Amino acid sequence: MAFDLTGSWRSDDGGHYILRQIDNMLWWLGTSSDGVFNPGLTFCNVYRGTIIEQGITGNWSDVPRGVTANHGELDIFLIDGKPDEQELRVTFASGGFGGTRWQRTSSAPVLRPTAQYLAYTLKLSLGLCHRARE
Description:
The chain is mainly beta. The chain has one domain. Helices cover 10% and strands 43% of the residues. The chain contains one helix and eight strands; from the N terminus they run ββββββββα. It has an eight-stranded antiparallel β-barrel with strand order 1-2-3-4-5-6-7-8. β7 (87-93) and β8 (101-106) form a beta hairpin. The chain is globular.
């Protein structure tokens, strides 16, 4: 493959998508932007697709975290460019999928939100969890 789609993407449905490409397979987790602490409460979906040249054909499904419960087929076309200019566009969708376009926001590894680290630090300071002793 001449490209790697792994990274964070933002869609015109307002969602945040974490993509993982392994050879010619594409996987993702898509969540609605319901705030830093509770993403995915409106919708949360997964996708598995096969990449052939610049086309991707696959299936998606909502998972029980969100209130939607749909599934279907989803075909996507990659508009290739520099990594920060890559775009994905839907060419076919069934089952009521909402997004039609994605733009890459980062190709860096996806880290846990800062809020989770702050919560952990607070628990440590209150003695609610224990650090490994050296």
